[in-house]
Design brief:
The protein has 1 helix and 5 strands; from the N terminus they run βββαββ. With 112 residues, the chain is mainly beta. The longest helix is centred in the last third of the chain and has 10 residues. The radius of gyration is 20 Å and the shape is elongated.
Length: 112
């Protein structure tokens, strides 16, 4: 397993880098409570079926993400998850600008 994490056969790298370890995958932290936006929308799963998706994105003022959480499932599961996040804003898509608007308080009014 250790050899698969090494660049021993990377002939295109400079000699001094060929035996160095490959950096681990970047880990994204969780969003900060009271910050960020939860986006509720429809998407497709790996089998191309339409599913409901919610994504909580905590963005810094410079545009970088401080944290991301994502959840997909049925309409009720996604709305329950989205409402349980302590985000600053909960939004749903619309066809015209501004393209994202605050979600209604009543879940029955959310129909994507």
């Amino acid at each position: 397993m250790e050899d698969s994490r090494r660049r021993t056969n990377a002939f295109y790298l400079p000699e001094e880098m060929r035996d160095s370890k490959i950096a681990p995958q970047q880990v994204m932290s969780a969003p900060r409570p009271g910050f960020g936006t939860v986006y509720i929308h429809k998407g497709r799963d790996l089998h191309r079926r339409i599913v409901w998706v919610a994504k909580w994105v905590d963005e810094m003022p410079d545009g970088q993400s401080a944290g991301v959480e994502e959840f997909e499932g049925t309409r009720d599961e996604v709305l329950r998850w989205a409402r349980s996040r302590p985000a600053a804003l909960l939004v749903v898509p619309v066809e015209r600008e501004p393209y994202w608007v605050p979600a209604p308080e009543n879940d029955d009014e959310i129909d994507l």
